[in-house]
# Entry
Amino acid sequence: MAKKAMVPQAREALDRFKMEAASEVGVNLKQGYNGELTAKQAGSVGGQMVKKLIQQAENNMK
# Structure
């Protein structure tokens, strides 16, 4: 399955969000490919992103 092109601004925002989440959990990400990350590190970044999205949704419901 080929990747569909996203809106360039959306891609940039998602990359910034990912870098912020990685920084918060102490994972060093670089621009581009990060294939040297362990599954634990990648999971930590993804988990932090989900946590932040849930917090934002909860705050918007108040």
